[in-house]
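To start, an entry.
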Amino acid sequence: MEIYTDLTEIRRPFTRAHVTIGNFDGVHLGHQRLFDQVVARARQNKGVSVAVTFDPHPLKVLSPQGIRLISTTPQKIELIERAGIEILVIIPFSREVAVTTAVDFVDDVLLKRVGMVDLVVGYDYAMGKGRQGDTAFLQLQGEEKGFSVMVMPAHYEQGMLVSSTRIRELVAAGKMRDVHRLLGRYYQIRGDVQWGRQRGGKLLGFPTANLNLSEEDLCPKRGVYVTQVIYDGRQYGGVSNIGYNPTFGGASLVAETHIFDFNADIYGRPLKINLLRHLRGEITFNGPEALARQIRKDIEVAQKVLAKERQKKLIAYHRSGDA
């Protein structure tokens, strides 16, 4: 996938650009349907598939409260590439960009710079100053200026509207199975392993890999989770505690993960953690022994959950093979 991080990097319009545009936070199942349409229409019409997005997220610039994002920009890029998009244009968002009118954005960016001949957007998309460029506006612009417009309807999974807003609410509530349904994958946190106080291994018998978290970011509900840990291209089971470690009077928000069947020095190395299920809230224990007993119980439950997940994947794999 070709990536452009500024409009000035685009030297000439792309050939028959089939475009979708949005913030795409989380790259959830609704976004993935947009990408599928763009890729299919581009192939059918011998064009190229293009996704246009913004960084930072516009609400990070325009709203005093900002927004807690489901995915980082590197995650978003990975997921858009995985969807088969050929060209990704990331427009640096600023207050100057925010005052661009919808007409100017269509003319100067999408038509002249990108070379758009076809546009696919979600049912609730709007662009330009004051969000004046809604789907009705875009369809009229298409009729006037010679590009086709497809508006994708709202997408539901098991009765739940698939939206970034809903996913943020579910993550904050620790409802990871519902999050999985709407994302089409597990919710993931990432970071470099930090030095901790070495209590997990020496005091409790359960060494942990620690990732520092920011309360300004989207933070899952505090407590213990069943997790999958991806390190150096391999996947391991684990249990993670997201919180402040109240038994030892912690003050920093940390994800502490005990990785099953793992023994390596990974300080400073990148780690990815998929959150499968919230097991329990964060508890203050009377001391290390009580905490260690509970961790053993958590591990037993986590291993059962992970075994069921492996069985589901195995069944799905065999079914796909039969098809």
